[in-house]
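call fold target=Ribosomal RNA large subunit methyltransferase E
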Amino acid sequence: MAKSKTSKKWMDEHVNDPYVKRAQIDGYRSRASYKLIEINDKDQLIRQGDIVMDLGSAPGGWSQIVAPIVGQSGRVIASDILPMDSIIGVDFIQGDFTEEAVYDSILQTLNGAEVDTVISDMAPNMSGVNTTDQYASMYLVELALDMARNVLKPGGNFCAKVFQGVGYDDYMKEVRSSFTKVVVRKPAASRPRSREVYIVGKGFKR
């Protein structure tokens, strides 16, 4: 079956993407690793000894960056519906964290500790129907914010991928209500035509 022009264009773009090539050379699991590196350089979200929660973690591109930063004195708790190969220093819980059993498993892994930073690179499986995809993506980032509000320590940080569109402005208001400082980042590794941005919240207000 012939590939559609759209899928061929995406494949050509992906293969020729400089960040894809860099990730292969640097040994990163995903080009998304460079997005977090840039955000963390600017916003200092993650430090040695921190407890970090990585939502939508598979294939592990962000956890790969976080684990060496927090070091042996810190912890990374990662979760995704999809499987993820193990990473030293990362506790991975597979499943949908909106399900009680998975959520409880995450809390048990925390063992009463509060989290310094919640990061989320979650995105839905795209259907190609813009309205449907936007609602699905906003649902995921709302869940990420709910999780952050439940586990962050006062003064903690939050970073989540958001697609600009319906619901974006209301979501920004919600984030601003919970953090003292909120900025929007568009890392160089984000494709220019993509509507994705990263909302960064610092100074969690319980």
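return ok
The chain has seven helices and seven strands. The beta strands are 51-55, 75-80, 90-94, 115-120, 152-163, 179-185, 196-204.
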